[in-house]
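Lecture notes, continued. The same structure-token format from the folding unit now serves as the input rather than the output. Read the line below as a description of shape only.
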């Protein structure tokens, strides 16, 4: 059986994961601008003018990453609200896997962005 406040503590990072995922899906421009300026020393406008295909590919990649984070957040919230609060034994490993998917997505995004800057 879980404590009455444990699920609330777990809900905070899960809701943040959902929020940042939704931001990535519907408004990826700040993320793209940050990575382009820090890694490639260029701007979105300059990239869109010189290579519109690459700009579209990057936008699609950032939106897909946001979608993955959104789905991880929805899955985590569902597990917390319906299984973890009831004390289901499988909910803790399931939460670790759902959070791991979001974390792995973030790591893959970083690798792709850094790999592109090295080429």
């Amino acid at each position: 059986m879980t404590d009455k406040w444990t699920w609330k503590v777990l809900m905070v990072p899960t809701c943040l994961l959902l929020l940042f995922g939704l931001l990535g899906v519907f408004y990826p421009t700040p993320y793209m601008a940050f990575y382009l300026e820090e890694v490639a020393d260029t701007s979105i406008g300059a990239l869109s003018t010189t290579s519109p295909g690459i700009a579209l590919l990057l936008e699609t990649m950032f939106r897909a990453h946001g979608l993955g984070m959104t789905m991880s957040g929805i899955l985590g919230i569902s597990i917390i609200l319906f299984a973890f609060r009831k004390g289901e034994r499988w909910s803790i490993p399931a939460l670790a896997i759902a959070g791991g998917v979001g974390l792995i997505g973030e790591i893959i995004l970083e690798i792709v962005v850094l790999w592109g800057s090295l080429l």
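Point for the exam: The mean pLDDT is 83.
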